[in-house]
Design goal:
- Helix 3 crosses helix 4 and helix 3 crosses helix 6.
- The chain is elongated and about 65 Å long.
- By secondary structure, it is mostly helical.
- Helices cover 66% and strands 0% of the residues.
- The longest helix has 29 residues.
- It contains six helices and no strands.
- It has two domains: 51 residues; 73 residues, ACP-like (Non-ribosomal Peptide Synthetase Peptidyl Carrier Protein, Chain A).
Length: 137
């Protein structure tokens, strides 16, 4: 189940407060629209979360995790699909180059420099490999 982020909860609380104010005024229809937008945003977040859970349960995620943890020495507890390579896992630019080289070797692909510049999270790596047609059982 999708767990709302602190930012999501903050936005939801602000919208609820606004909604309460609007309920007591002539702007009731606007309140209904705000509630509909909130529900739609929540549904979209749930869909993204569901897709991410599918990604986590794939062999591809496990293989990428194995490559990064074994060769870069990142802490297993900090490793999630949303882990940012620099901020969460403590990688530097050389580590990222090494990760790309290991991925190229493991999956027999070539990752152009312009593509490596767009990879910031583990999810970015998984999506990139999936877009290249890479599958792992």
């Amino acid at each position: 189940m999708y767990q709302k982020t602190p930012k999501h909860l903050e936005m939801e609380n602000k919208l609820k407060s606004l909604s309460e104010i609007l309920n007591s005024s002539f702007l009731f229809n606007l309140t209904e629209e705000i509630n509909a937008i909130c529900n739609m945003a929540y549904d979209q977040a749930q869909q993204i979360y569901d897709k991410d859970m599918v990604n986590i349960n794939t062999g591809l995620f496990r293989k990428v995790k194995e490559i990064i943890i074994e060769n870069i020495g990142v802490n297993n507890e900090n490793f999630t699909l949303d882990s940012h390579l620099f901020e969460d896992l403590g990688c530097d630019s050389l580590d990222c180059v090494e990760i790309c080289m290991m991925l190229e070797e493991e999956f027999n692909i070539e990752i152009p420099d312009e593509d490596t510049e767009k990879i910031f999270t583990v999810k970015d790596i998984i999506n990139y490999l999936q877009n290249k047609g890479i599958k792992v059982q």
